[in-house]
Amino acid sequence: MKILDRIQFATLTHKGPDNAISKLLEASSYLIQKISDYDLAAIGISCGGPLDSKSGIIQSPPNLPGWDNIKIVSIFKDKYNVPVFLQDDGPEAYGKKGLSILIDILNPQRIVIGSVYARNPQLFEKACMEIIDREALKPARDVCEIVPAALGDQIGDPSEGKHPIIAVRLLLKVW
Does this model's pTM top 0.70? Predict the structure, then answer.
């Protein structure tokens, strides 16, 4: 895979989802026109959860205030008339994978998770406990607990625009 171009901008969550979606569509259109030697084959959108990948809906991620049940896949499908896919790339998705490996290998009694868990434990707690129930051996499962790190929510606030929050990838036909 080769990256032909890239546009990055702050999401500016205080301006709401319509502003960011408009910028995403503008940037996508600009890149499609700029790379006109290729045909657009599909679009991939990645965003932190929670989201429903099958329905293509972003469901109130903590780092995107106001993004409540946004039908992002439909928005891009309607504009570009190509297949569009939505994938969770947020800490919840990666955290689940890491937690599953940790429990499967080590079967710890206590797991300490950093600032993102402290900031929004309701987002993670149910998923974490489901993984513990599925992956941990019974003795570990009976005593394993998940707690927020002592740092709490003092670091790593993605909503300040320091980190990319949503990404759109244009997949091009090269033949």
Answer: no
